[in-house]
Amino acid sequence: MNIRVANELDYPDLRMIYLESRRKSFHWADIEEMTVEDFDNDTVDEYIILAEEESQILGFASLYLPDNFIHNLFVHPDFSGMGVGGQLVNASLEKMNKPIRLKCVSENQKAMRFYENNGWKKVVEEGKPGEKYWVMVYE
């Protein structure tokens, strides 16, 4: 598996991964409101890395470097559970300075377990009912 910085030629695949991953796993959200344009809107000014194997993009992470913040981490549903997320998190940790933060939707139990199993700690739960998320930190 290769981790590298994304470029504009990767964006069509990244848009689809972002859309398909959210539609498949965000059971609390209205999937009809999700569009391919969401990727561009949700990654403005972010440093994007991706995981690929044999020229196929498996997933990506978008980082807001000024705040040492992992904003997005998504793996294509077909490659979930194969270590892609862990590789992307490790590459993200190498790019930023600790402590590193992220937010994880409280209802996303699979993601919460993933982060906690990889050394992240819950700091505080924020947001209004139905939109709660945990601020998590890696030190």
Automatic annotation (TrEMBL):
Transmembrane segments: none
Domain N-acetyltransferase: 1-139
Keywords for this protein: Acyltransferase, Transferase
Presence of keyword Acyltransferase: yes
Keyword Acyltransferase: yes
Pfam families according to UniProt: Acetyltransf_1 (PF00583)
Single Gene Ontology MF annotation: acyltransferase activity, transferring groups other than amino-acyl groups
Protein name: Acetyltransferase
Provenance organism: Neobacillus massiliamazoniensis
